[in-house]
Amino acid sequence: MRVTVVQMNPGSDKAANIAQAGALAEAAIAADRPDLIALPEIWTCLGGDRETKFAAAEALPAPGSNEAPGEAYAFLQDLARRHRITVHGGSIGEAAGEKLYNTTVAFDGEGREIARYRKIHLFDIVGPDGTGYRESATYGRGEDIVTYEAGGMTVGCAICYDVRFPELFLSLRKKGAELIMLPAAFTLQTGKDHWETLIRARAIETQCWFAAPATWGQHMEKAGPRMTYGHSLVADPWGHVVAKVSDGTGFATARIDRGRTAKVRADMPVLDHRVL
């Protein structure tokens, strides 16, 4: 399976973000012909104030229903159907009452929704420069651990700050995951020190491939400009980074080798050795 991670520089203009995602995805598909393509976290509306985020959010169709989807959902569905590939839609704002959810939706090559994951761990922290982040002011917390099938393998879902909580990834491995998707909008200050280190650690611990599409560059929040780190990457089950995007927008593609996964797990059967 060939997997592509797309790196975007989204802002608060939803229509412009969809256009940017479309241009990058089409370029990546034409160049690399992936079987699965993935977008970053909250690529539809990064920044702006609370009202902007709520205006950009979408009420997702009930599974199996004929409800009309929102613009981002329809874009992802159409991309999957036209190119007959799996599309992991990063995450978008899901409208669901007084708060939103930071939600992944994934589609198969027929355009059918095959996964829906709400981010479990919310980013309520103070950064190294004293800047505060409080994701829980806008977003509710998800509860379900989610996997789906693509290309004959089990794919696990996580989003950004989730990467700091290894028990989630152990649960995904126990559910059969071989590839874990980690769309993100990692801050520049935390990303430069922790992004790659955390992903490589989770890959080594779980003996899973990781595909991590991220946002990059400056966007405007109500409080002023914020920077995200980018460096979208794919890591193998030994913790090697096998593909990476540099600064700027772009994409990178890697081949997921299930034989590599099987060898790593056979040579070092850590799941069999666990006592806790």
Short description:
This protein is of the alpha/beta class.
Key words describing this protein structure:
single chain, 276 residues, alpha/beta, Nitrilase/N-carbamoyl-D-aminoacid amidohydrolase, eight-stranded mixed β-sheet, six-stranded mixed β-sheet, 29% helix, globular
Superfamily (CATH H level) name: Carbon-nitrogen hydrolase
Look up the CATH topology.
Answer: Nitrilase/N-carbamoyl-D-aminoacid amidohydrolase
- Please give the number of β-strands: 18
Evaluate the radius of gyration: 17 Å
Instruction: Name the shape in a single word.
Output: globular
DSSP summary: helix tally: 7
What is the first-to-last residue Cα distance? Answer: 33 Å
Reading the helices and strands in chain order gives EHEHHEEEEEEEEEHEHEEEEEEHH
Number of domains: 1
Oligomer class: single chain
What characterizes the major β-sheet? 8 strands, mixed
Report low-confidence residues grouped into runs of 5 or more: none
**CATH architectural name:** 4-Layer Sandwich
Describe this structure as you would to a colleague:
The protein has 276 residues and is an alpha/beta fold. 29% of the residues lie in helices and 29% in strands. The protein has one domain: Nitrilase/N-carbamoyl-D-aminoacid amidohydrolase. The strands form 4 sheets. Strands 1, 2, 3, 4, 5, 6, 9 and 18 form an 8-stranded mixed β-sheet that branches.
